[in-house]
Protein 1
Amino acid sequence: MKRAAPLILALLSAGCSGIQSADGRDGIEGALIGNLFDVFLWTTVAVYLCVLGYLAFAVWRGRGHRRAQAGLQGEPQPESERKWRIGLIVFSGATALILAGLTIATWLTDRALAKAELASPIEIEIIGNQWWWEVRYQDPVASRIVRTANELHLPVGRNARITLKSNDVIHSLWVPNLAGKQDLIPGRISDLVLHPQRTGVFRAQCAEFCGLQHAKMALDVTVESEAEFGRWKAAQLAPPPIPTGSEALAGYNLFLNRQCSSCHNVAGTPASGQVAPDLSHVASRRTIAAGTLPTAHAALGAWVADPQAIKPGNNMPKVPLTPAELRAVTAYLETLK
Amino acid sequence: MSSRSRLSILPLTLVLVGCDREARDYRSLALQSHEPANAFGGNAYHLAQGQRLYGWMNCAGCHAHGGGGMGPPLRDDEWRYGGNMEQMVATILDGRPNGMPAFRDRITEDQAWQLATYVRSLSARTRQDMLAGRADEPANVEPPVLDERKPVRRVTPKQDDATEE
Amino acid sequence: MKNGANRWLLAVLAVLILIVVIGAIVLGAPDRRPDPVFGDKADSLAEVPQAASRARSPSWYEAPRENAWTMQLGDPSGSRFSPLSDISAANVNSLEVAFTFDTHNERGHEAAPLVVGDTMFVTTPYPNDVYALDLTTPRPTVKWHYQPVPLHASQGVACCDVVNRGAAYEGGRLFFNTLDGQTIALDTASGGELWRTKLAEINKGETITMAPLVAEGRVLVGTSGGEFGVRGSLTALDAGSGAVVWKAYSTGPDTDVLIGPEFEPFYAQDKGEDLGVHTWNPEGWKIGGGNPWGWISYDPELHMIYYGTGNPGPWNPNQRPGDNKWTAGLFARDVRTGQARWFYQSSPHDLFDYDDVNESILVDMPFHGEMRKVLVRPARTGFFLVIDRETGQVLSADPYAHVNSARRVDLVTGRPEVNPEKMPKPGRVTRNICPAAPGGKDWNPSTFSPRTGLVYIPHLNLCMDEGEVEANYIAGTPFLGADARMFAGPGGHRGVFTAWDPVARRPVWRIREDLPLWSGALATGGDVVFYGTLDGWFKAVDARSGKLLWRHRLSSGIIGMPMTYRGPDGRQYVAIFAGVGGWSGAIVSGALDPADPTSALGFVNAMGDLIHRTEPGGKLYVFALPA
């Protein structure tokens, strides 16, 4: 037990740190809920200590009391009865007051969340699929709409209103550092407002069981300065160039003529499949396959070679490729920055 | 009941519950079997994947939900190019002369078998307990749970179609 | 006391049971009202306009020669009117079959035959054979028979049956298109091939079904394939050599769409640079549709052609945000250079497959006191549009069919006010959208009679439920993203034949038909109007009152266009193709399964009874008065 204690402590606090911190207060919404959490936490700690204290006192006092009463047949004394009654009223009253206070605190937080300032928000649409996220940045000029997958970039200090839709089953978007969960329900449109306050990298997770690979459906969230965000968006709008190196070019031709283009889209090429993640700038993302693997040469190759071994049951089939073809396709994917 | 016998019932129950569970074949091992038709044709997971692919690969665009349109209906007994699984897989992969496109390099071979499994279910050739009551994607039509095969309705006399070369 | 209470209870119970039983009998009783009979009579709604307040043929209009019918719409203004008056309202009821010609082709026959002097030219659906018939013999003989042998695989990328809408004749040459995308010119004397030019690639889902138009030495040909994500284009070929003179795309940058300094659209939303790119999601225009597969009209005075572009791809509008220019709209171009002059989009960010390829009939008509050069068109959206053909301004837009998908067309901005209830939502089915995807009227052309000033519209009364799914693009396969299911609109009749007054902006009379009308119409100088039904009835009605004067049952449903000519023996003949098919008749010509309501892009749900009412089989019927 003694050896297990630090391990248990470490596990318990794992959810409260780093890029996927449930206690994260890096966004206004997250901060509001965090404050409410603090109120609840300290109130209940105080109540708990009081109760424990009284229990200890009662146990300590009760030892003498029992010995004294052992010989008597219990008959209630009017005086102690009055004391009991007062005590009960006081404690019930205090409990009611505390609960009312917590309710009011919750209501105030809810109100603040609902009234979250929506001046010139960035409009984003996230569509949940099994088991990846499609992310679209809306724009009044249709040709400036950015379509990407499994990554979300936000400028710090600005509102983002995210419209949530689903193409198949119920998912839920949860960016622990920034805000609470919001479901993506097929046939309905819900929304989530984020107002990040701190730059950094965060990890979001699907929070509603959605099938075989629900556990490997993460979203990479990057909060950056306004200028960097603008640069990223502009880079997303520019189609990747056709590769010139011979291996990458061979991979490009394979991509177009084999199964890849049936599902995936790469801007600037005839590959216009819509049902799988957009790969136009896949090499510039930090992770692939919805946060399953880092974007590194070996990982890309392993994923293309056998996605079913890494994420069994996901909708990308194992495409039979010779080793040379695999190297070519991987080389091509790495040019898609 | 003694606690020992109570303990032994628990693993027994767990084992029994796991008995009838169908194996999900993600690695397409069925392709390597002697009888892929049976391995794919009797597997509900492959049928469900076939149902998903039927929409994704635009089969529904020509064949609707089995009723046909640009392509012939798939719910009846008439198969111009053969109705068993191997023939259907060949139709899907290689295409056919009168307009069926070839999907050989657009889907993998196991996906073609999954599609053939689903197409067979449209004409009531698969076990009823394999049919998905509902697909994962929201559907605009009721699930095709045909319990008896439709008779062939031949209104158009056989015309001068291209023959196999 | 207890007994009394019990008695009251029993009485109340008995009364309740009596009410329920009576109600069940009354409500469950079969409807004894007689079924309405459609197609037999016309509802009279207004007066035929007086001469002064009537639309008339354009000032440059010349009636076609009596012994010739050289283009599908009859003349460049698109009127489908013949001044021949031997057959009149008085004697049409004695019309009889003069001869027939069997094409031995079981698909949908949408074309009309052409006649030049002694010879009749007949085109068929895939495999697009052409016959020349000698009209001087009592039973016409085949002078020559040309077989273009199009690619078999083209049958797989034809959305709405493997139809062909006919040929065009000019200067001893016959021009027509094949399903696999070739335009062919034949020498009419010998049937020899003069040239053929390939304009479409079937592996990308491109086909050609439309009838070409010949104007100023150019043969104008538009592609089909809006259901396949094909980027549409209209090409002008040199009539002598078949070389490409100009090619105008329907989406993309201005240089591809031939939008230049001459382009002066009337409405603000059509002004801007590269709108064919910026009103689409990135690269959406490359697979954006806009195929001009319908009718082209020509004004020789202004040197302008008018044609509409088809639906944007995919059907699912959420995948292509923006107005999706230049799809689902009407272009006016200079026929010599192809440069666009103006454009009007009848369905911006189209939600319901409202292609804008219907015919534009060029007329001159009084508008607010002064004569204007306009074009009139019953659009797919269900609105009858009157548009100034010099500027592109919409003068009036009134519903000629039942419409709930849009409330009205705002004449200041030109935009239809889309009904938000009918907008498609992802993951849900939107119910009862009127008109359905084929619109208030599909491709089948109406006719204009300058004698009455009325436009005679054979059209539809269909509504639909539509649900969206995600569309995936794979070249050569359908790019749709929607399931539809059509059914009869209010009233229960699926087709309507309307006589519309474009000046007064209202119908004059209307015939309700049981089945959708998919045939063209013909108006003649004898004040007779001809059209055909999907179960094979070829009808002649009075041009002024709509009264049914004559009808004849043909061997197959009618989706063709009637035409008339004076034969070598001096008699007037009326010709029409029987041969059910097309989008509405696909359930018969394709042997589709009525148990799946989404078949044939939803049409099968509305046409289950057609399989019992007609059979496929192409046959040309030619009628005349008894000798």
Protein 2
Amino acid sequence: MARTRKSRLKTTAAQATGARETPSTGRKPARKPKSTKEPASDPLDDFIRSAARALALPLEPQWLPAIKANLDTNLRLAALVAEFALPDESEPAPVFTA
Amino acid sequence: MGIDPTSATAGEIARAVNAGEVSAAEVIEQTLLAIRMRDPVLNCFTDVTAERAAARAQALDRERASNKPLAGVPFAVKNLFDVKGLATLAGSKINRSREPASRDAVLIERLESAGAILVGALNMGEYAYDFTGENIHAGPSRNPHDVTRMTGGSSGGSGGAVAGGLVPLSLGSDTNGSIRVPASLCGLFGLKPTYGRLTRARTFPFVASLDHLGPLSRTTHDLALAYDAMQGPDPEDAACANRPIEPVTPLLARAADGLTVAVAGGYFRKGLSPEAFAAVDRVAAALGVNRDIEIPEAARARAAAYVITASEGAALHLDRLRAHAADFDPAVRDRLIAGAMVPAALVNKAQIFRRWYRARVLELFDKVDAILAPATPCTAPAIGQKTFWLDGEAVPVRANLGIYTQPISFIGLPVVAVPLPLTPLPIGVQIIVAPWREDVALRIAYALEQMGIATAPTPPA
């Protein structure tokens, strides 16, 4: 479950923030020195920071754990709904009336 | 004075006022005295409209011959209702800077047209994103049955004020359970009507596609009187249905005759405290119910309601989060910010599921007239308690007291929550019916009351 969520969040964060990969300069990328390996950052933390910037929402460092816990619950429950297969033709509940 | 308004029902007060046994002015005087005496502990009121109430009572006494169904009945409203002259707080600090409302909410106008008298605005969870009745700015509303315990929320003051005998009638809002949860924890009758039945015009919203308004009281008859006075279409609320008024008060005496009732199984029998189990079983036994029925995919329905709430609630408050984040209750702020980050694709999935789920649940009402389910998983938690045990797991109180109410309001079904007077604390049972059949739920509630099974217990002095 955790692995599934991790991969989903990577995609979601990129889509939500409109983030793009660094443009290619046409040059061969410099190889990182072996000794500077950084610890892997938490994808949900990254997503929250990026989304807050993109949405112009304030984000104090001390708020992060609670926001993360809430977002994790939101995404877990959303996944429970999303995994329930319904036909493509299914209409959402709200129906616009002209 | 022939009647004690702190223990009398709305129906009894109206009858006495109409009969000239007591004046509306005397009722209001006694009510205001009770609020002054008891509310410093219960903390249910954020504003008391004493002058307005006294003036209205005097006016009513001058026209006593009018014989109104709620003559002289004091009532109070959750402070997300517009009250002329007051800023509409919706439980927040931020809204204190709003201009005072220029006009009352439509439901206040309708109750006052029926003779009721507004005596104030009530405490609530900030912006209604709450099941506890706690409020960081105004302090927690306190449960009259044990003042160290929660009222439940978000209509916490609406529950505490009626259970504590401050008023016989209050109005609350219910997006995911915010009438039914305090009704359960405070031992009251609460009506969440069909989505679109009662106008929400001039109230502060939370989740437009899930918001309902409704009454809390100490008897089914009082619920019906208030509900009948508030029905009717209203072009000011885009979601309000264009249906005629369908009075239910004259139908109560039919009770449960000829109605088929079942108990919700599966999801609704999982994680219950012994008290919640006992309450549902006691109601089922009294009604002679011997069949269970499965509400399909209820856990997913609750999940979808949760996601839509997070997203729509965040959309409502996005600008306030940007400009006034420090002025929110941190617990609400963090939920709203997280809600703003839910991808739209997932919210849309929840809305697609919602339509599917509605169709499946409506099929059940081909077989039964009503479904019984617990209103809350447990009796009132202690004020300040952050988690409780649910199905072997410690889960947050704020988000989970409504796990049995959320799958129902998600598709707008009408529900009456009835109180079971268990010792030491009461707990509620939901009577769930098909859309627009509030009459059926109220008839069953009335029958349970007549049998002595459902009753609003009197709190300790």
Protein 3
Amino acid sequence: MNLFGYAQPMIYILFIIIYPITNKRFSFLILSFLLGLSIDFFSNSGGINAAASLFIAYIRLPILKMVSGRTEFDPVLFNIKSMVFSRQVSYLLTLILIHHYIIFQLTYFKFSSIVSVFIFTLFSSIFSFVLLLLLSSLFIDKKR
Amino acid sequence: MQHFFNFILKYQYFLLFLLLETLAFSLTIYNNSYHRSIFINSSNQIVGGVLERVNKYESYFDLNLNNQLLLKENTKLKNELELLKAQIGTSLDSGYLKLDQKYKYISALIIRNEYTKLNNYLTLDKGTLDSVKIDLGVINEKGIIGVVNNTSKNYATVISILNQKSKINVKLKKTDYFGSLVWDGNHYNILQLIDLPRQAIIHVGDTVITGGQSTIFPLGIPVGKIQYIKTNNNYYTKIDIKLFNDMSNLGHVYLIINKDSSEIKTIENTNNIE
């Protein structure tokens, strides 16, 4: 998908964003890697998506801790929707920005095109953000 | 040794992350080298099968248009054939013409077309079983499309001319000045001509064709028209070429097999050794 020449929203990272916080950290890491790899299979992009999605899967918990101001999470009770909306937004936005930056930096593969990388990252992130916000409201159960 | 195992146990989560990340990065770097024979691409059986099935249903929608295009090309080819028959008929009598087919064409269907990314690849529904090999040129009736870079039994991937790795030898139709066709990644129907000598005189609207200096494309396949020229101190700093093809709308293509390519490569290699 490509819009206006600059925005390429990537919504498959919804899986990484809303995956419940469990103690099965290893399987989560491997699943994220395989998810990115399967995207790479179809788009002939080597290991770009695998690298980016693995990275945000790894830093998801530290970022969640930073954003919510908590140090411990109860895996059963904690739900992303139970956070304040502004915190949800900053959690979502941080992960999207990091993910998209890695994708575009690895796609261009040189530092000389840093301006294009930033433009792509910015526009795509805004678009992914809007889409993911809508999608996450569909997938996350609010009552829990 | 005890310490070593303790270390691994303590950081096993981080080490797993490091291992997978290294794997992903090495795949990425490997992918950036021109020739790769690795399984992460859409020429493999599973992905190719999925893409083919999707394409089968999609292709019904533009059946009518494709039929018309084929009909048009058939007429053109039939006319050419008649013309050539007449020419051969006269020259066979004089006895200097040696009849031999130098290029062979295979038809294929694009089952996946990319044009929005920086490095675009196409996937074809023909593979090694149909004698598709690496480094075959891919064209259609309007112009060049790319070069095969990976094959499996039934599928092949093609480096599109819309790819940073792609660099194709072209020349101007009017004169014999050669240059290279590359893509800057901005617009999918506008490519750039580089390495053109400064003494070459060009105008907007000049036709660009393939140069025939490589064994991939024969001479004279149409590429596009010059759309924009920027000069600085008599040097050409930017030449934009508008393609005859619409790279976002591709269906049936032809692969070109050059029967003399191995012979040309052997003779060139002997020169290099000396």
Protein 4
Amino acid sequence: MAEVKVTTKTRRAAGTKREPKAPSADTARIAVVGIPASGKTTYFRFLSGHFGLNLPILYVPSREDGGNLPLFGDLDNDVALEETTYETTDPTDPEGSLETTTRYYVNRPMEDRRKLWVELSAGREDQGILTKYPLPTKFNQFVEMKMHFRYGAADEKTGSKPMELNTVDEAGGIIADYFSYDRLWIDSTEGEVTEKSCRVIPHFDSWRPDRRDLWRRGLTLLGRFVQEADAIILFLSPALASLRDQAQQINLARGVFRYTRTRDIPLVIAISKADKLKEFYSEVDRSVRERTFRSTFDPVDFLLRRDGAGMGTILVAQEGRGISIREDVFLVSSAVSTGEGHPLLVGEGGQEAPAIGTPTLGVPVMVNTTLPLARACERILERRATKGS
Amino acid sequence: MEEATAAAPPELKLRERNVLLLDLSKSMLAPLPDPQGARGERQKIEVARTAVFRILQDAASTGMPFGLVTFTENVRVPVPLGEVHRENLPYIENLLALLQPSGRSAVWDAIAVGADLLRVGVHGVRGNLVLVTDGWDNASTRFGVKTTPDETLKGGLTDLVPYILPAGSELSLRIVGIGSGMERDRGVDAGAMNACLDQLRARAAELGLAGAFGFQEVTTGTQLFTQMVQAFLDVGYEDDRPLEELHPEELAQHAASAARALKEPQQHATVSRLRAPRPTAGEADAVYMESPDLEVGVLPASGGAPAYLKERYGPLGEVIESYIGGQYSRALALLGEARSVLPPVTRLYWEARIQFAQRSVVEAARALLQAWTEAEKLPPASQASVLRRLALLQARMQNDKETETLVRFIDDTEHRLGGVDAGARERLMDLLARLMELRGTYQLTRLAGEGDLQDAALRHEAAVEDVFGRLQDARLEFASSGPVVEGALDFIEICLAEMR
């Protein structure tokens, strides 16, 4: 992102409830959820790069409309992405305060676009240095990410009401726990996840007290946050090497299905990091190399019949229960990698740019990233229209 | 003064309180004949101790209150009625080894003391008494038994029958009589024992009491073993590792492997032979049975043969000792000698296990096949665990790692849950049973055609959700119940995720 401004730093006494910002009646809120390393952060950063810097997006399969989706960044306010860090200053002090820090990412051209890639897609080890985020997730902090945009048109008059895409970042573990275990769910924006109900989380009692407390607070924050959500986008990564992570993701997915069904809110699924899937990558690669190639890749057939390790049966079971596999499930990739850590870059003319060697002005390739967001907006507006009528 | 309360008696199940009455009169030093000759004669006391050790170990693993009364002319209570803790077993066993037979037999006085241990205030005598004796009552000073209902007891003796069976009682008395009663001083006084039991039956009927009373006469060491060592004892495998020792990712790999055994019945046919580990309805309320359940135990693979093996398990212990020592031919020979003593399923299993160890695969498979047949005849309480031991061996013989992982997990969990409270055990076993049942709904999703697929998938997901909800409740209820419970819940949770 072009620039980072640290604008606020506030301290709050422990136990003081942070009043959630009341969402405007004119605002729709879409929550992005997924387990740790499912791609939430990358999604937010690259998508805001699309809104702020016009980063191109590739569609696989190809779209008849060329990908002209009516999504627009909130350029009026010059802010593409807002990240607020909540951190306990002294985890060992039960009376310790909760510190919040907000960073605003603004839309300005970068002097050297190559740095964009480094900034956005650095590995977890490097991100700590580059963005001051001490990753992997520290137990004493979590981050709220917020992206402002409109659907329909860029201006207030013809476009939709302001929309927000939110997630509690650095908190994939909290998200996974909250949705997996419905005994944790709260029913109002004033609700509180109790210490007792947290015992549904495996081995919770064996954790350090400060971690338990932060986790409970994080669950409460998340519970209130999704309570206000008008739609949910669920991120599922097909590239999890660990069986534990796979199990956590499946339990989360089943939980999100339960949640959206009982709350009656739209659900859209993004299969993130889709470039890791060989067949899909081949389509992306060919689309970049052959300018005339029009992909007819069938994601539904792929997900239900050929991705054996995936969610075929679970998706089939949910069909028609608040979700349509054909319309609400997308394969996305926020930053396509050629493998071995090299990004797939495209140059100014849209052709592939070499990733190494001579300096290049290539930008990372994003695939389908706007589709889940646009679909979520569509479903929110459909619902509002129906309710309104 | 307050009147005796007429409140309902406390919830005590017959099977939960056991007192063993062991005759230590001098005649117990006499040998018992062994008509087969191969094993030589054994002293009655040696055989009886074996039985006591086994019962004690059983009590320690199940947590059932247990008490021991020994008698000569004097009646003693070496082990008061209470929970037997595993760590105390060696001390109790040492104590028993020191008890040397001498003197005469005060049988009726001993039964009265045993009944006193089981007495629950105004609610009568409640529990099980097992009397092991080889003699005639010739030393009781307080109690006697009438030979006919109209007889008057002499010498100020109290009538034993109403004393041990007052109103409200729920008592079982099983008498194991050693030696033939045809001739005095050569064996148990079967006539007096049966007269006592007849009067107990009549009184129970008269008062409308629940109870069971039986007499079994044994004349050889083999018969005594058969009566008392109804055991299926197995030895773990070298690569056994308890769940809590696994790295979380290893645990996940095990769970995923076990889930494959549930998802692919064609490749894992052995799984279909397992019984759900859920307790059979009414089992908890079962009362005294003439044919006691088979005791099922598993020895750890490491550390060699335990010193108590022969002492506690007699001929079976000797077979296993040879097996652990790698003397397979000797083990097979001993197994042949113990043929008449061992339950058929135990013998056939061990034949298969030994044959497999010495690479005689065909013989092993044949014996195991017969063991499966015998296992089907077992009482439900011990059947499930025996079937799992057979399945484990079969999985190893077929190199079926998935089934092996699943069976090991269920078996290990059930075995180790013996130490936790009954509620947690029951809930976990129920969860395991429900997990096993997901095989059915999952199969429907594989077999369903295009049109029926969604229905099948929906049904399966609903079943998974149901189990997952129960799993969450178990987590809440049994949080901090220790690594065994938590490890089992983690395993089931990952298995559920894999059932997709």
